[in-house]
Amino acid sequence: xxxxxxxxxxxxxxxxxxxxxxxxxxxxxxxxxxxxxxxxxxxxxxxxxxxxxxxxxxxxxxxxxxxxxxxxxxxxxxxxxxxxxxxxxxxxxxxxxxxxxxxxxxxxxxxxxxxxxxxxxxxxxxxxxxxxxxxxxxxxxxxxxxxxxxxxxxxxxxxxxxxxxxxxxxxxxxxxxxxxxxxxxxxxxxxxxxx
Length: 195
What we know:
Elements: E1 2-5, H1 8-15, H2 17-29, H3 35-42, H4 46-58, E2 62-70, E3 73-80, E4 84-87, H5 94-122, H6 141-157, H7 182-185
Helix pairs in contact: 1-5, 3-4
InterPro entries: ArsR-like_HTH, HTH_ArsR_DNA-bd_dom, WH-like_DNA-bd_sf, WH_DNA-bd_sf
Keywords: DNA-binding
GO molecular function, one term: DNA binding
């Protein structure tokens, strides 16, 4: 499942570092949660979190999935989008394209910074738990899509800790971009060496 961010407003809404924290907190819950639950876990005021949840809801990254009457108050349960979030470059003029690129870079910087903080935190103790990998691989477009779909489905499958087996929480941050190395872009074959 994919969600495409197509407009500057959508990218601005998602790229806010505080909203990224809210999305991460919803993911950690592993179940639909109320704004109050998210606010409590972030040690924040519910009104502040509610404002940002409404912004995320407006672009489909958070959805209202249930309501319950609790002590005379309607509790609203939200769930985060379960899938890949992609940025689609639309037909903008050159000026708007520059702003679009700037907002996209802002979003990526915020995502990388949040992931970096969590990675460094995981490696501060006596037993480091973070794993970092960097590989150049050669794939067809279909294989690249298959890989991202598989990772996404694997993460969704293991989002909830609802088994009797003891499990630990791991944070996964995955990026994949088409390489720009001109030496390898045409062929993946070695030329025969001359005698």
